[in-house]
Structures are given as C-alpha cells and as structure tokens.
C-alpha cells in the first residue's frame, strides 16, 4: 500500500522538510511527551520518537500515539538491538493499528553505550534487512513468512546514514542498499564537519542516490564544550572538529556556551540549506526540545 502520511506527501511535493527529535525519557506518563511537543508548536513536518536510544525510556510506540492525539505527525523509531523479527513485525502491526504511518529503521547503539551492560542484544536482522521487511509488509500486506495479515498497513520507511564513515565507496554502497531495500527518506547523524558532509552528499548525488530518497541532514545543539568532548569520545559518529570545541570554550560560562551551541547549530543549518540534493534538516534535540524554537528562528526556518 502506498504510504499516505503527511511526511510522505511533503516528500512528494518537493518541499524543504524540517523534522526534530522528541525524547521524553524514562517516564510512565504522557505529560512529558505533551510538554516537549509544545515547544514545536506545529512547526515541524514530523517528530521522531527514539527507541531506548540512551537507556530505558517510555515506549516509542506509546509516545508516538500520544503525539497523534496532540495533532503531531510522529516518526516511530525502532531498533533491531532489542527485538527479533517476530517482535519487530508484531510491533509494526500494532503501530499501524494505532495510526502510526512513518518508521525509521535502526540497529541501535550497543547496550554498553546506553548504560545497560547486563542486557543481551538481539540483532536478528540488521537495519537494511529491517527496511526491507517493513517495506514488503507495506507494499504486499504479508509477513516475512508469506502470511497475509488483515487491516491497513501504510508505512513510510526511512533509515539512518553516517556521512563520515570512510572509505566513501563503502559508505555509499551501504546507503544504496538501504535505498534499494525501500528507504524513502534518510536522516543522517549530526553534522559538524560541513566539508566532509558536503563530499558525502556530492558522492550520493553522483551515484544517483540523492535523487531516489529524501536526505535530511542531522544537526545537534551542543550545550557545552564538555558535552562536545564527551560525545566525540564516546560515539564514533560524532565527528566534532576541534575548532567548534574551542569556540564553545571561548564563549565563556555555561549559559554562554549553551547560547553559542545554538548559534553554531543555526549557522550549520543555513550552510546545509544551500547544498544541492539536500531535502531537509533533522534536529537531534537530545532532550533539549526547548531549544528547537530558538534554533528554527535563528536559522530562518
């Protein structure tokens, strides 16, 4: 079945797309989701809900349903770290029955990186295989074993890309696999090294990949130089140049560094918008939803 979400229609229209992350965290109430969404005030094409990205948190399905009730368009994130293909398909059927129409397929951070070292991982399928599985469910109405299921299942499927992995040929090959599997949109890891990202995007255009999917560049508002150093040391995909960390340090105290981080984020968005082949921006708020309106205003969005 053809995806009919609002995000799918925006992709088809050719509009410049702005999405952001909403991370309510470890809570058993929908109030946290509602409070976070108020900062977005309907200004986004869609809102991502992480799937235990940094430790145990409220179910991404539950948070997405809360968003629908509040009039927002959710993007459900699901990781293969915690579910085998049985659970993945079951959760997808449940999500579709609740009105969720956008899906971001991810492998997920290793449990050692999210403070849950005692947990077992699953990784029954990888993110590309998950994209293929969800796409076939949407297009054919059947499960992986060929069983036909009842009801409407219209899911816009997306994936994540790390523009900074090298060699470039292998990076673009992996991107091509996800697109071929059915990824209609790609949200990238946070961009701080604009030169490296530009090279990747140009490579994607030359290979014809950027024309086959909607690439949204991730941006992240750094709160301090200390946070930037911790992220860079912990996660390989956070490629943060020394000059950005030095700029944060020179800004002054904590409040000044936070303000400078927002300014850097807005400047990055303005530069990214000028790149040919880029279809939008994805703000990785990291729980800093309150900063999103300021970022949007400063970036002219």
How large a portion of the residues is in β-strands, by DSSP E?
A: 5-15%
How far apart, in Å, are the first and last alpha carbons?
33 Å
Assembly level: single chain
Pick out the low-confidence regions.
none
- Kindly state the mean pLDDT as a whole number? 92
Number of strands: 8
Helix content: 40-55%
Number of helical stretches of at least 4 residues: 11
If strands are numbered along the chain, what order do they take across the biggest sheet? 1-2-3-4-5-6-7-8
3D architecture notes:
With about 300 residues, the chain is α/β, with parallel strands linked by helices. It has one domain: TIM Barrel (Alpha-Beta Barrel). The protein has helices at about 5-15, 30-40, 60-70, 85-95, 125-140, 170-180, 195-205, 225-235, 240-250, 255-275, 290-300, and strands spanning about 15-20, 45-50, 75-80, 100-105, 155-160, 185-190, 215-220, 280-285. The chain has an eight-stranded parallel beta barrel, surrounded by five helices. Helix 5 (about 125-140) packs parallel to helix 6, helix 9 crosses helix 10 and helix 10 crosses helix 11 (about 290-300). The chain is globular, with a radius of gyration of 18 Å.
């Amino acid at each position: 079945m053809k995806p009919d979400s609002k995000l799918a229609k925006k992709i088809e229209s050719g509009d410049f797309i702005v999405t952001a992350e909403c991370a309510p965290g470890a809570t058993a109430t929908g109030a946290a989701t509602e409070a976070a969404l108020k900062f977005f005030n309907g200004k986004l094409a869609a809102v991502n809900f992480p799937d235990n990205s940094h430790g145990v948190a409220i179910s991404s399905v539950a948070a997405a349903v809360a968003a629908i009730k509040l009039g927002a368009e959710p993007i459900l994130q699901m990781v293969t770290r915690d579910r085998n293909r049985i659970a993945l398909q079951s959760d997808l059927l449940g999500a579709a029955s609740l009105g969720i129409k956008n899906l971001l397929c991810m492998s997920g951070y290793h449990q050692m990186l999210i403070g849950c070292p005692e947990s077992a991982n699953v990784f029954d399928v990888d993110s590309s295989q998950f994209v293929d599985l969800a796409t076939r469910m949407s297009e054919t109405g059947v499960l992986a074993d060929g069983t036909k299921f009842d009801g409407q299942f219209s899911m816009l499927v997306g994936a994540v890309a790390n523009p900074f992995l090298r060699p470039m040929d292998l990076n673009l090959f992996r991107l091509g696999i996800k697109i071929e599997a059915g990824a209609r949109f790609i949200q990238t890891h946070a961009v701080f090294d604009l030169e490296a990202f530009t090279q990747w995007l140009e490579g994607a255009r030359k290979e014809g990949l950027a024309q086959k999917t909607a690439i949204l560049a991730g941006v992240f508002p750094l709160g301090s130089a200390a946070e930037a150093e911790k992220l860079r040391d912990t996660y390989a995909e956070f490629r943060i140049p020394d000059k950005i960390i030095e700029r944060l340090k020179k800004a002054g105290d904590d409040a000044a560094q936070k303000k400078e981080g927002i300014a850097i984020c807005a400047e990055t968005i303005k530069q990214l918008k000028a790149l040919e082949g880029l279809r939008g921006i994805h703000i990785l708020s990291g729980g800093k939803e309150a900063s999103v309106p300021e970022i949007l205003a400063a970036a002219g969005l």
